[in-house]
Specification:
The protein has 300 residues and is α+β, with helices and mostly antiparallel strands. The chain is built from eleven helices and 13 strands.
Length: 300
């Protein structure tokens, strides 16, 4: 008699899921941003992110018509991939896995030889930095960053402070203003990002979020926030600065890195989405590693 496939019940993640899913995701030691529960939760509406729990394993997928799955987290990875293959085949579909790094790709290929076609997803590669580098900006390679900050120092009366419940509304108002500078949030991605930042500010404790802001003459002109991927890597989910305040990005980046450096040796500043200007900006901070990600599609 054939074995009955395991039924995975996928649904939209809730804040309550952070309590059990976050420790599982952190336990992998993976450094890419997709292994952050906060990333999954913040973008759940835009990418139709869903999760399913089976024992001590979390299954995560994105998309609806032809979903792709994050490598399952918990217990036996090989067996969990087999479960996903069975689940997809039962639905009359093939399996696509996104988010494997080079090491995981090699393991999956050994377990499932000639089963998947692999493609690098370059626009999704994450940028990894030494926290101490971003906090100190020491050396010739950061000369231009120090100049931007010096000009900001000379021009503005500014201050930095952590984000908390007392200033969260000001932060959201600043993000709304930033969005208006870019076509009044007409872009669906910007609208979703604005909404997700607002939601995250309401649930900072549950999501293990921390962040900082920069004021000029009392007005919030820059913000950043993120959460730990694991005990050594902190993921910066969002960083915004108003266009009229040249140098504010360099300032908020450095000030927040100063807070993170004592606890997290590495900072993940996520991907460049294939946008050339964003790619140049991220590379200008001299990443210590660009984290490759691969998409595996089951061969027909």
């Amino acid at each position: 008699m054939s074995k009955k496939p395991i039924n995975l019940e996928f649904r939209e993640p809730t804040i309550a899921d952070a309590e059990w899913a976050s420790p599982l995701l952190k336990s992998t030691g993976m450094k890419i941003c997709e292994f952050s529960f906060t990333t999954i939760w913040m973008w759940r509406k835009y990418y139709n992110n869903q999760i399913a729990r089976y024992g001590d394993t979390v299954f995560i997928r994105s998309g609806d018509v032809e979903p792709y799955y994050l490598p399952p987290v918990g217990e036996d990875l090989k067996r969990n991939i087999e479960i996903l293959r069975e689940y997809q085949h039962e639905r009359g579909e093939f399996l696509s896995i996104f988010g494997a790094d080079a090491e995981m790709k090699e393991r999956i290929e050994q377990w499932f030889p000639d089963v998947f076609e692999w493609q690098p997803s370059e626009g999704d590669y994450d940028y990894l930095y030494n926290s101490e580098d971003l906090a100190t900006l020491a050396g010739r390679k950061y000369h231009s960053k120090r100049n931007h900050i010096a000009a900001f120092d000379a021009r503005y009366n500014w201050s930095y402070e952590p984000i908390d419940s007392h200033n969260a509304d000001e932060v959201f108002n600043m993000v709304t203003e930033w969005c208006r500078e870019r076509g009044n949030c007409s872009d669906p991605g910007l609208r979703n990002e604005r909404r997700s930042i607002g939601e995250a500010l309401d649930h900072m404790d549950e999501l293990s979020l921390s962040g900082g802001l920069v004021r000029v003459d009392g007005r919030v002109v820059a913000m950043t926030m993120g959460s730990p991927i694991n005990d050594s890597v902190f993921d910066v989910h969002s960083e915004k600065a108003l266009a009229d305040f040249n140098g504010a990005y360099a300032v908020i980046n450095r000030e927040f890195a100063k807070e993170l450096a004592p606890k997290y040796p590495l900072i993940n500043r996520e991907n460049d989405m294939g946008i050339e200007g964003l790619r140049r900006a991220k590379r200008s901070y001299k990443p210590v590693r660009i984290l490759e990600k691969y998409l595996a599609t089951e061969k027909v």
